[in-house]
Amino acid sequence: MLRSPITRAARSSASLLPSSATRQAVRVPRAAPIACLQQQIRQAHAISNPTLANIEKRWEDMPPQEQADLWMSLRDRMKTDWKEMTLQEKKAAYYIAFGPHGPRRPAPADEGRKVFFISAAIIGAAIFVFSLTRLAANPQRPKTMTKEWQEASEEFLRACMLVQSKPGPKGQFDDVEDPDDEE
Known about the structure:
By secondary structure, this protein is mostly helical. The protein has helices spanning 5-16, 20-26, 34-43, 49-52, 55-58, 64-78, 87-98, 111-136, 147-163. Helix 6 (64-78) packs across helix 7. The protein starts with a helix and ends in a 20-residue tail after the last helix.
């Protein structure tokens, strides 16, 4: 019989530890990892003023690793009481989170004009290529495009529609009487 790995694991642990009370007694609380202790220590001190000075102008030019380090230290500071944060830390955290940098940077002033002119140039080039191909094409129209051919094909279709007024193949409904014909 096929069993899932979860069922097998549950049964194997149940055979080793027969009751749930025994299982709970066997659990040993783990010590806090060293990284958590270091994070708590990092939260204790404020970030230096030269690090946060003029962050709005320096943020774009900072290397990505330095940006990440600064953001992580600010994030750790924000986990503590905000009353303990300096005004410069609050401003830097707000700028990094919501400031006009990266994808939130405002568009350049002439971007709309550039988009319009480039789009107009592409459309104009497409019209020019279309016109050029029409000029280079054979001026004589195919015989199926003449007025006489179109009228003849319409007459042919009308004749086919009159012969086959009922749907289906010819002769399918010849022996069946139509209830509307009784009147």
